[in-house]
Amino acid sequence: MQRSKNDVWVGLFVVLGALAVLFLALKSANLLTLNFSSHYEVTAKFDNIGGLKPGAAVKSAGVVVGRVNKIQFDGESFQAKVTLALQPEHAFPQDSSLKILTSGLLGEQYLDISPGADEKNLRQGDKIGSTQSAVILENMISQFLYNRAENAPAEGQKP
Length: 159
Hints:
Blueprint: H1 2-28, E1 40-46, E2 57-60, E3 63-74, E4 79-86, E5 97-102, E6 109-114, E7 127-128, E8 130-132, H2 137-151
């Protein structure tokens, strides 16, 4: 009887430990977002979102003020429609702008919101019109190589 009680307690402890490790793995990979606080949602459209993912941080002055809630493709404008969930204690003017930045050289992408000067603040369902798409490293390299080839002297000409 005593042995079976100990086995139950050990089994319960192992299951709780496995759940804790799973929770930490999902949380660190940004695949699990538990948020019990309220938020307000705003949308923005981008020509190219690069590697931006749902759950990515929305920062202002380096401080996380919200998260990317969902990303959809708008078939009418052929742009990416990004829905942001912003914390209600951070009110931004309606003429604020968004740009997609990267943490470090090849790090994770996030949204940076720069406040505008409008008197009215963003509310639930508003749209942010001023956006700047992600800088794609492959596009920059190909543009550099194209410009370099265009400016190179032709064969038989002196530089």
